Amino acid sequence: MTFALLLIAGLLLALANGANDNFKGVATLLGSGTANYRRALLWATVCTLLGSLTAVFLAGELLRKFSGKGLVSDALTTNVDYAAAVALGAGLTVLVATRAGMPVSTTHGLLGALMGAGLAAGSPVSIVRLGSGFVLPLLLSPLLALCITAIVYPLLRSTRRRLGVSADMCLCVGNEIVEVVPVSNGVAAMQRASELSIQVGDTVTCRQRYQGQVLGLEAASVLDWLHYGSAGIVSFARGVNDTPKIAALLLLSPHFSGNFSTLLVGLVIATGGILSGRRVAETMSLRITGMNHGQGFVANLMTGLIVIAASRMGMPVSTTHVSCGALFGIGTVTGQGDWKVIGKIAGAWLLTLPLGAALGAASLWCIRWLTLV
Fold this sequence. Notes:
Elements: H1 2-21, H2 27-31, H3 37-58, H4 60-65, H5 74-77, H6 80-99, H7 106-120, H8 127-162, E1 166-173, E2 176-182, H9 186-195, E3 204-211, E4 213-214, E5 217-218, H10 219-250, H11 258-276, H12 278-287, H13 293-312, H14 319-334, H15 339-372
Antiparallel strand pairs: 1-2, 1-3, 4-5
Helix pairs in contact: 1-6, 1-10, 1-11, 3-10, 3-11, 6-7, 6-15, 7-15, 8-13, 8-14, 10-11, 10-13, 13-14
């Protein structure tokens, strides 16, 4: 029964992780209008699953870190009840956040559950290990993403302008482009809109696009391909980084190898994103900051590079924190960031760890009660 509880709790955590995290890599595709929800979700699912399958080769250190070794007593890390409580506590934490549409860190939920269940079991918790091995990377990664993005985006924007690629605003009625003006003169587009003869049922929109060529290729098409590529990198990196954290909990079962656990967790993560990802998708794509194709591309590229590098070094950073940090950076540079929404997200991050600890402790007590009945 104990191993069955571990399996159920682990798969619940993987499902919750997929629901809260799967769309984060492609949020800028939807937010910038590069792709619709279904196309973006399909791309995220495929790339995340590929990252999950690759995790067994690139992220062995994360498998060891998230067994709890070094954080709590060694004897507790081999206890199946403890592993099941950690998975259940973290899974419930992420599900609560997903229901509220808040993009939170599964890593934070896991860390809180590791601590809470450990304390409930009477184990000491290594504060030094907690700070240097877990908390420090989690705190620094979003700040790093914000700063790097805020520096890199203006540089790339300047490069784009030197190449003669302009940013234009298109006034569209339905699918027909009726006016193109420089992006800095959006007022002209709105004045032109007031002059049009609009019929009932017509949809009038302003869309930003790039005009010009790079190496003989249309800049807009090249950027779209790069944007998809960067979104794929982020989703792939998330699969590499998150899958072993969850798979590590299943390794206590004698029936599961590292490869099998990683594959199973990857499949369930993909399923969670397909079934329940829309609320977090709307927050990430539409509420944090307005963005165009180029800004979305830069945010995704920076996120992917940071998360992949951290996974390779065995640093348990949160894809959520890095991705949001990059979007915060774009919003800071462009002045379009919604700081009220950003504040709510930051508040959710602060609550994730203590909520995970409380639910991890409660889960351990419940599991031990069930095994005694």
